[in-house]
Every structure is written in C-alpha cells, then in structure tokens.
Amino acid sequence: MTSALETGSLPNAYLFTGPEGVGKKTAAQALAMACNCQAGEGDGAHHAGDQTAEGGSGGSPAFSCGRCRSCRKILSETHPDVHWVLPAGNYIKVDQVRELCRRLSLKPYEAKTRLVVIAEAHTLNPEAGNTLLKILEAPPEKTLFILTARQGSDLLPTILSRCRHIRFNPISRENIKHYLEAHYAIDARDADIVAAMADGSLSNARVMVEKNWMAHRNWIIKTLTGLHEQPINYRLAFSEFLAKDSGRLLTSLDIMKSWVRDLAVYPYLPDQLINKDLIEEITARSEEMPTRRLLDINRQIETAARSIQANANARLAMDHLVIALSNKMACRDRLRPSNGENRTNGKSNRHPV
Ligand SMILES: [Zn+2]
Q1: Residue 40 is part of which domain span?
Q2: Which residues surround ligand 1, an ion (CB under 5 A)?
Q3: Is residue 295 part of a domain?
Q4: Which of 6, 44, 154, 319 is 20 to 30 A away from residue 276, measured at CA?
C-alpha cells in the first residue's frame, strides 16, 4: 500500500478483511491521513519546520504527521470528506448508501482525496450492495473506498471484484503484549496473559485491560478451584452471579476453559501456559487431574457456552455446569471420601453438601 501511495497508483477501492480488532479501522484512518496530510505544504495549517512527517519526508504521500489540521480531523472522525458508513442495527441499508451517493455528488470540502469507509460491508443488504456497486463501477473523482469485512467470501462477488483485497492477520501475542505495556500501567506478566487470551485482537485486549479482566480471572479461578469445598447454596450463588453478569458471561466461560486447558497442557507443553502466573497452582493440580477428566470438563464448558449463545436460559445452563464441575475440579485425593466415609486423619476435611 505504501508503494501505491508513493507512486500515486492507488486503486479506487480496497477491501480489508480479518477478524475483529486487528487494525482494519486504524489502517483506513492511516490511509485517509496519508492521502490528505498537510505537513510540508507550507500553508500554515501545520507545524511547519518541526519534526513532522516520519522519516522527515516533508509531505511524502506515504506518510502522515498525525498533527496537522487534516490528520487531527481524521483521527477525531470529524473530517467532512471522510465518510463512515456503519451498520444501522444488523444491516447497512439502502437509504444509507443513497445518502452516501448524494454526498458524493457534491464537491469535496477540503480533502485532496475523499475517503469512504464502508465498515462491516458483509452487512450490506442486497439492495444496498447493488447500489454501492453502481458507485464503485463509476466512482467520483479522487474518491477512495475502503470496505472492511471478516472475509471476502461474505461479499457479493461483483463488489469483491472491484476491490483490491488486503488481508489482516490476527496480531501475535508478543505484539499485543508490547502494545499493552506501552499504553497501559500493566506489568509484563499480566500483559502477557491478557495478550494470550485476546485471540489476536488488539481491541479485545484493550477492553480486557480497561474492564479489569485480570481481577475477574483471579476471582473465577480461585472460586472454581475451591468450589468442591463449598456448600450447594454457595455454588448456586456463584452460578447466579456469573449468569446475571451477561455481558461477561462468555468471557467467564473462556477463563474457565483457559484454566482447564492449562491443567491439561502443562504435563506436555509447560512453556505454553496462558495463566503463567499461576504455575505453582497449575503444577500441583495438574498432577492430580487425569487428562480424560479435564477433557470432559472442557466439553461441558463448551456445551454451556454453545447453549447460551443459542439463547438458552443462562441461569439454568450455568447451574447445570457449576454443579457438574464442582466435584470434577477437586483433586483426586480430595474426591475419595465421597460415599459418606469420612477420612479420619484430616483436621478440616469439610464435605461439600
Ligand atoms: Zn498531517
């Protein structure tokens, strides 16, 4: 893309595909800035003569300063010639595309290159898609289109054929970790764990840090591992709490899965843990938990997650899961006195109800 900017050979439309949070929107903004940056123009609108454009290119179209009036407007999404079209509800509707057509029929206010970003283009309904296709077939001058989607196959082939396709891969654990360390007050170990759980997505990672995911994880794992020692009403209260926190319920289940996964993986790949900070606990418990039981627990968590995603009653699904997991999460030696026979040597071998 940089070379296309330098040679001025940009196509009319790009398609950026990849999972959520891998930088598609950021790349669209960067492209808009690079096409319109005023640094080096000497029009007084920028910080003339300072350490502006990267590499000191003084207006090279491949770079943007991030500080001139144009760049700042694009970053704050207030630039009048950068148009964002987002799904209204579940779809991008034809009226939205018609409104876009109307705006594109007018002259640009100030931009050298006008930019249109159709975010989540896979949500274009058929009529909206066909209307957009007409614009792409005869695009207005100096107007660049960027469509974003999870994958190219989600789009109408006719639209796909009009775009230069650029794929965005999930971001590596290492890169997410470095980003978090640079932008948040988070220590390296926590950043690494969040990065492992963010599924290659920077926006996932950001939300996790901002919503104090580590504290939530600590609480879930601690409660889960001690559940077999608690009475039934405590277990049900745990289940109820998780079910009511519907915005984080699937995250909570992912945390449980990460814990079970670490216990299963530890004997074979001890350097591949997600919850690396809990290695002592993992070492102790992993020895006591047969792999088959861990796989069974994992299957039960996945079943609960699937039924919740399919709109099953979350409370019932969680009650069922938590009761099933309570005993299974106990270490082998703690499971033995389960038929009413108390062991006699223990001081506080409290029985679950
Ligand atoms: Zn600039």
Answers
A1: 2-167
A2: 37, 39, 64-65, 68, 71
A3: yes
A4: 319
